Input
Amino acid sequence: MKIENTKAQMRKGVLEFCILSVLKDDDAYVAEILGTLKDAKLLVVEGTIYPLLTRLKNAGLLNYRWEESTSGPPRKYYGLTETGKLFLKELNTTWSELQNAVNIVTSQKTTKK
Amino acid sequence: MNKTVNINLAGIFFHIDEDAYLKLQRYLEAIKRSFTDSQGRSEIISDIEARIAELFSERVQNNKEVIRVKEVDEVISIMGQPEDYLVDDEIFEDEPQTTYNRKTSPSKKLFRDTDNSYISGVSSGLAHYFGFDAIWVRLAWIILFSAAGTGILLYILLWILVPEAKTTAEKIMMTGEPVNISNIEKKIKDGFENVTDVAKNVTDSVGAAAKNVSDSVSNAAKSVDFTKQGNKIKSSSKTFFDTLGEVIMFFFKVFAKFIGILLILTGAITIIFLIIALFSIGVVNFIHIPGLDLVDVVNAGNTPVWLVSLFTLFTVGIPFFFLFYLGLKILVNNLKSIGNVAKFTLLGLWLISIIGLVVIGIRQASEHTIDESVIVKQELNITANDTLKVKMVDSDLYMINRHYRNSSFKVLNNENGEKTIYRSDIRIIVKPTTDSLAKISIDKSADGSHYEKAIERAKNINYNYTFNGNELFLDSYLTTPVENKFSDQEVVVFLYLPVGSVVYFESTTRSFLNHWNHNGNIVTPGDTNHYLQITDGGITCLNCPVEESSKINIDIHDDESSVKIDSNGLEIKDEDVNIKVNAKGISGEDEAVEVKINSDGINIKSKDNDNSSVKTNNSDI
Output
C-alpha cells in the first residue's frame, strides 16, 4: 500500500465537496475554481478536476453558462443547481460530523499514548 | 530550424513547433484513453483543450510567437500526467460498478504480421497469437500442405479473413502488449534507430534523415488506433470475486475455443468433400468416364448434371460455410467480417439453390406421373392335353443377378455397340383360360411426364421370347436404348393356359413368378419344378409328395413305460401291461391275462392256466 495512493484517495474523497463549496456563493469558471483549490493545496495538477466537473454536471448538481473571454477561448461558468445546493447542505452536515468523529478518534489515540 | 504546425485549440489559433505539436497530440490522446464515453469523454476533452488553450494564450504575447516544447512541458506539468486524470470509480461511483468489462490483462488479437512474412504473414501472426516461434507454425503448415491439401484451403481462408497489422497499435496488439504511450514510443523508437544509424554514417543526409524521422513519427502517431484500448490503463484493485470470475471466464473461453475448432473442422471437411464429390460428378457430364453414365440415365428430366451439382453444393455448402465462419469468429476475436453484401449474396444463393432443387425434383417426379403400357399378344400351340415347359434365358452381356428379378438397371453396350439399358424387372402371371389354345401376352410399361412420352418409352422396350415345340423360353431381362432414360420400364408376361393342360416351370423362373395370387395368378414361386395341371380356378400338382404335415406322432416314454401314437397305431406299454392297437388288431396283455381282437376273432387267454381260455371265431359268433 503506497502512502501516495492513500493520500490521493483522501483528497479525492473530499474534492467533490470542496468544488461544490467553492461554488456555494458565486458562479465561477474552471480557472477560478482551480485557483481556490490550488491555493488550499487540495490539488497538485489541474487535470483531476475536469472529469469531476463533468460528473457533477451530469448528476444535475451543477450547471454552466458560456461567457466570452478577452484573453482566450470562451469560458464555462459553473454554478450550483437547486439539487446541488441541497446536496451541499447534506455534505456539510456529514462533513462536520465526520470532522468531529475524526477529531475524537485521533485525539483519543493521543491521550492513550 | 524547425517546422511549425498551425493548430486550432478550442477555437483559438496557435503556431506550434512540430516536436511540441507531436508531444501535445500524444498527451491529448493519452488523456482521451483515460476516459470512457459514458464518462462524457468528448466533453471532458473539450474542457481540457479549452484550458490548455487558455494556458497557451497566457504564454504567448503575440500571434507570431510559436509554442515550443518548453511551453507544452509547462502546460503538461500544470495539467498533470494522464494518470492524474483518472477518477477512482470505487470512491465516486454511486452504484458499485460491475467489473467484468474491465479487462485487466491485455488481450491479444490475431493479425497478419506482414513485417516478418514469407507469404502473407499468416504464420508469424499465428505465432504471435499463440506465443510460439513462427518456425513451428510454418513447419505445421508444411506438414498440413503435404499430408492433405486441405491445409492450403485453410491457409487461403485465413489469409483472406485475418486482417493485416497496419497501424503501430495493431502491431502492438498483435504481440499482446497493452497499447499505451510507452509501448508506442518504444515501437516508434525502434523505427528511429534504423533511421538514425543511417544518419550517423551519412553525414550529408542528416537533414533528410531528420525529415524521415519526423515523417515516420507523425505518420505513426496519426495512424495509431487508441480508442479501442480505452480502459486498459485503468488500475484496479482485484478482489477475490474478480479472480474467481476470471477463472470461470478463462474456462468458458477455452470451452468456446474448443467449440470453435469443432465448428471449423466440421464446416471445412464437409465443404471440401462436397466440392470433391460434386466436382467429380459434374465433370462426368463432359468427360465420359465408364460406369458413371448411370447418373445421366436416371436423369429422365434432362436437367444438366452440373446444375444439380451446383445447387446441391450451394444448398448444403452454404450452411456449412457459415458454420465454419462462426467457428473462426469464436476463435479469432477481431475477424474481418465477410460483409453484409457477401452474407446476403450467400443467403440469396442458398434460397435460389433450394428453389432450384425443388423445381428439378418436381420435374423429375413429373417424368413418372404417367405410367403407360403396350401389350403384345400371341397364341401358343398348346391344347388341353399338352405339357408346356417354361424357362428363363439370360443374355451373354447381361449376366448380373442371373435368373433373379431385380428392379435396378445397368447400362451396357449391346451387340451393335449401342448404349443400352438392361433391366430384369420381369414378372410372370399365369391364368387359366377356357379357350382351346394357350396364349402369351407381353405387357410393356414405362413412366413419362405425359401420355405420349410414356407410350413412346413403353414401345421402345425390347423383350423377346421363343416358343419351340412345347418349350417356352422367356428372356430374363428387358432392354431399351439409353436415349429413353431410365423411367421404370418393366415387363409383365401373362400366360393364359387352357384348363386341363399341364405346365412345368423350371427353377430359373422362381424369382420372376408372382408371390401373391393377385391378378388371378395361379402359379407362385413355390410351384416350380413340378408338373402342374391347370384346373378351372387353380392348379393341381401331379408329382408333389403327399402332404404329411397333418399326421400326429406321439412318443412318450421312460425306462419302464411308454405311450406311442404313430402311423403304426397305438401302443401303451408298462412293466407288466401292454396294449396295442394297429393294423393287426387290438391286443392287451398283463401278467395274468392276454386279450386279442383281430381278424381271427376274439381270444382271451389266461397265462396261469393254459386251459382256461375263451376263443371266438368268425363262425362261432
